[in-house]
Design a protein that fits this description.
This protein is mainly alpha-helical. It contains one helix and no strands.
Amino acid sequence: MNPYSKPGESKIGAKRPRILHLPPDALEQRNRQERQVQKEAVAAERRAIKKSARRYLKDQMNSEVADANS
């Protein structure tokens, strides 16, 4: 430790205090695998929504083309 350091500068390196920005009860208790499963479920739901929207727009476009040709 540097004897001429300022009070805040003495707490550096590997032994510095760890800062927690959230209270301990707010930290998630899920493990990596559970977070990954949830992430994949959200992605699958988004894909399903996009697929449904594409189908709907395709049907709408086909009906507009059929009305225009009639």
